[in-house]
Design a protein that fits this description.
The protein is an alpha+beta fold. The chain is about 30% helix and about 25% strand. About 45% of the residues are buried.
């Protein structure tokens, strides 16, 4: 059982602790055939079906009171094709295991998100992304998919085979079927040099277009209650490898980013008035550093401090306005926000319900420490995001419904028509999908 989901007395909980469900039964299939049989059996019993990964979504996208399918036996690499430069993996494979296995083979994904605890199918189905000028989300690197559809048949799709399914199923929200295997494009492993440095908020916004244009992967964190940010630029490097030293790595990544940060959040939760002072200290605690390593060691970092999160994609040209409004809102209010706001970008892609579908996007993510009231902050932030035609991340908290989403996704109707065809009886439906896709 994954460390992030617990099933005490039959209740499933997500990593953030904000979503729970009591499935009628749980199935852990050891093969695609067993999974297909479980879907057919659920239909006979009149039950809905949901596959669940590691529970890293903050929405109820995986919750069900029907049959919960756990994919942990469907893991591992099926095939590496060095001519096509692709790797085919079972859907339940954790990204961490994929990254390590690829590195051993001298291969890597082009881009990835900032954590790697999720399963490949959970991460791609919700549109997990990192940051990139040319390179897009993990789902945009998919070259083929295998999924079990509502009638228990196994469907394969790619640009050539069932292309209309491929266009949508790469970020399928679990609504079109259960993904059983994914074929990713890979490339020979490369080195990235990361340059992290503090920078004033106003300067980052003033120079954002230039910082974006000059770096393959640019992101920054703004600390609410301060005018400070921490920036990170990742660019390909000829080497040599210069990893973060073990002691420095432990101090910055474990002690400061996880240990001290955890304690600071406990203090902030107990005494919210201390948060602005803590924010000023923590925004200054991380000093500039440069290191060079293989991609997954640069893109990803451990996240042990539990939180809840909302993230929206806005058009890239709307980023500066969005952030200035967010800062003005926090400064005006009596909100106390202990978590930094994370800002990343993605180029437009061609996936039907990708947050970057058809438009160059910037992502703004707001977080709150688990167990602290987040509603007022998230509601105020969401008002700003939606005023800029924001698209909520499918796996993070938001209050949007099908009516709103059909207005910000030009191809929304294409997705719902495909769902009508593949799952006419809504075998894969749950409350969340009913809200975001409509009945």
């Amino acid at each position: 059982m994954s460390s992030t989901t617990s099933a005490k007395n039959g209740t499933w909980r997500n990593w953030g602790g904000n979503v729970g469900a009591r499935p009628a039964r749980e199935v852990t299939p050891a093969s695609v055939e067993e999974l297909a049989a479980a879907v057919r059996k659920a239909a006979e019993d009149g039950l809905k079906v949901k596959a669940v990964g590691t529970g890293h979504s903050f929405t109820a996208i995986a919750a069900t009171d029907g049959v919960l399918i756990r994919p942990q036996l469907l893991t591992g690499i099926r095939k590496i094709d060095r001519d096509a430069m692709t790797v085919t993996v079972e859907a339940g494979t954790p990204l961490k295991r994929l990254n390590v296995a690829l590195a051993r083979e001298g291969l890597s994904l082009t881009n990835m998100g900032d954590i790697m605890e999720q399963t490949v199918s959970g991460a791609t189905s919700t549109g997990t992304h990192g940051t990139g000028r040319e390179s897009a989300s993990i789902a945009a690197q998919i070259r083929g998919l295998e999924l079990v559809t509502a009638d228990g048949s196994v469907l394969t799709c790619s640009e050539k085979e069932n292309p209309e399914v491929f266009a949508a199923a790469r970020i399928g929200l679990g609504a079109l079927g259960i993904v059983t295997a994914i074929t990713f494009a890979v490339e020979p492993i490369f080195l990235l040099t990361a340059r992290e440095e503090p920078m004033p908020f106003d300067r980052v916004l003033a120079e954002f277009d230039q910082l974006w244009a000059e770096n393959e992967h640019f992101e920054f964190y703004w600390f609410p209650h301060t005018g400070n940010t921490n920036t990170k630029r990742n660019n390909r490097s000829a080497g040599p490898e210069k990893p973060v030293g073990q002691l420095a790595g432990w101090f910055e990544d474990e002690f400061l980013s996880n240990g001290v940060f955890q304690v600071a959040n406990w203090v902030g939760r107990a005494v919210p008035a201390t948060i602005p002072a803590i924010a000023r200290i923590s925004s200054k605690a991380l000093s500039a550093r440069t290191y060079t390593d293989i991609p997954y060691k640069v893109f990803t970092s451990p996240r042990r401090v539990r939180f809840v999160e909302m993230e929206y994609a806005v058009p890239r040209e709307a980023l500066a306005d969005t952030l200035r409004e967010l800062k003005a809102m926090v400064d005006r209010s009596d909100l106390k926000v202990s978590f930094p706001v994370e800002v990343r970008t993605a180029p437009a892609d061609d996936i039907t319900l990708s947050t970057a579908s058809g438009r160059n996007s910037a992502y703004v993510a707001v977080h709150m420490f688990r167990g602290t009231p987040y509603q007022r902050y998230f509601t105020a932030a969401e008002r700003i995001f939606t005023a800029h035609e924001g698209r909520p991340h499918w796996g993070k908290m938001h209050t949007r419904d099908a009516e709103y989403l059909s207005g910000v996704y030009p191809r929304f109707g294409e997705f719902t028509a495909l769902r009508e065809r593949l799952d006419p009886e809504r075998r894969f439906q749950n409350h969340y999908l009913r809200r975001v896709l409509g009945a």
